[in-house]
Amino acid sequence: MPGSLEPLDLGVQIPYHFRCPISLELMRDPVIVGTGQTYDRPSIESWVATGNTTCPVTRLPLTDFTLIPNHTLRRLIQEWCVANRSYGVERIPTPKQPADPVMVRSLLSQAASESNSSHARLSALRRLRGLARDSDKNRSVISTHNAREVLLGVLFSETNSNSSELNLESLAILSSFPLSESECLLVSSDPDRISYLISLLSHSSIDVRVNAASLLENVVAGTRSPENRAEISNHDEVFDRIVGILNYPLSYPRAMKVGIKALFALCLVKQHRHKAVEAGAVEALINRLADFEKCDAERALATVELLCRIPQGCAAFASHALTVPLLVKIILKISDRATEYAAGALLSLCSAAERLQREAVAAGVLTQLLLLVQSDCTERAKRKAQMLLKLLRDSWPEKSIRNSDDFACSDVVPY
After folding, report:
1. What percent of the chain has pLDDT over 70?
2. Does pTM top 0.90 for this prediction?
3. What are phi and psi of 303, to 5 degrees?
4. Checking DSSP bridges between strand 30-32 and strand 68-69, what pairing results, if any?
5. Which part of the chain is the U-box domain (predicted)?
6. Which of 40, 273, 313, 345 has the greatest number of beta carbons closer than 10 A?
7. Pairing of strands 68-69, 38-40
8. If 0-12 CB within 10 Å is exposed, 13-18 middle and 19+ buried, where does residue 184 land?
9. CA–CA separation, 415 vs 412, rounded Å?
10. Residue 414 burial by CB count (10 A; 0-12/13-18/19+): exposed, middle or buried?
């Protein structure tokens, strides 16, 4: 029983009719199905999601999958919890009810109608945003009612005014949803829409900037047209503003996550990677690398490897004193992918300058690479490690090679 002691330890038993017939646990959000039976909402939703079409207790077919909250039973369960709090039982909170499809359609209709007052439309959008923020299920309900089409229409209805509350509220909701390929094309093929989104990247509110970056990344990643992606990444100041989000001085995890996703998506366009370097992406990546969570760190290292493949990026990383020691330290520390990207970046850097080869060896890269080629890491990571070991052969300390048992067991041999 969540939030309480075990029944056998506290001497109080959960009443039978308070238990879910599926999970046998105390119900926290009891709902009634078409056969009249009551179940805990997560349990019956999981039952139906796995393909079951009958009532678990009666075995009668469920022709209607509508779930009706059993408010009376929930109140009785809450009262029982309060009455037994001396035994350590905690009162279950009143659950938030999932979005009603009829209400969602009504809110979208209100938001889309230009005949309604701005206040009414804004109120509808704010209610939609609250529903979307509550749960994945609500977002799924909203998404099935052409919400993205409506919200895109509202967002780009007044592109001459980046302070319109209607626009910004629509943007905030859209940033919670992935766009379809056709929706990405609808945005990416319209220069005015892209210019508007990029203008929002310099908004006074960090939330607006992050929402705009999130939608822009969604569009770039979801657009198949190389020409459209190149046009977006060639836009004036887009890299400066994305790097600015990464460099936001206060602790804001979402800014970090969205910023690196957007930067990576833009850097996939090879011909404009130099713009990222000119915008200060190299320093931002190195300075922020230790702050990223695992998946974001992988994306950041992938971006580092991409930028190391162009002369400007390689030179910029080479000039940063922390680049080589940091990349060496990362090998085998975060994940297989992170190791692969770090090894790839080191390969590019060490191929460009002998000075960096000596720096890598001094940072302990030899031991890291020898461990890597014998690990369960990806084959691509191992190949990069072997190429790097070959490249560094002239910089290996003789004593290290002679005394290394790891080296004797590895697939790499000195030349």
Report:
1. 91
2. no
3. -70, -40
4. antiparallel
5. 13-87
6. 345
7. unpaired
8. buried
9. 9
10. exposed
Kindly give the interhelix angle for 379-391 and 365-373, rounded to the nearest 10 degrees: 140
Q: Are 98 and 107 in contact (CB under 8 A)?
A: no
Distance CA 49, CA 233 (A): 41
Burial of 194 (0-12, 13-18, 19+ CB in 10 A): buried
Q: Which pLDDT band, with edges at 50, 70 and 90, does 4 fall under?
A: very low
Residue type, 244: G
Integer Cα distance of 255 and 251 in angstroms: 9
Task: State which H helix or E strand residue 305 sits in.
Answer: helix 294-308
Give the pLDDT confidence of 399-408 residue by residue, as tens digits: 554 444 444 3
How far, in Å, CA of 161 to CA of 145, rounded? 27
Q: Which residues contact 102 (CB under 8 A, 6 or more apart)?
A: none
- pLDDT of 392 reads 86
Contact between 28 and 20 (Cβ < 8 Å): no
What does the block give as tokens for 314? 């390689």
**pLDDT for the residue 159:** 63
Phi-psi domain of 59 (left: phi exceeds 0; alpha: psi -120 through 50; beta: other): left
- Tens digits of residue pLDDT in 224-241: 999 999 999 999 899 999
CA 387 to chain centre: 33
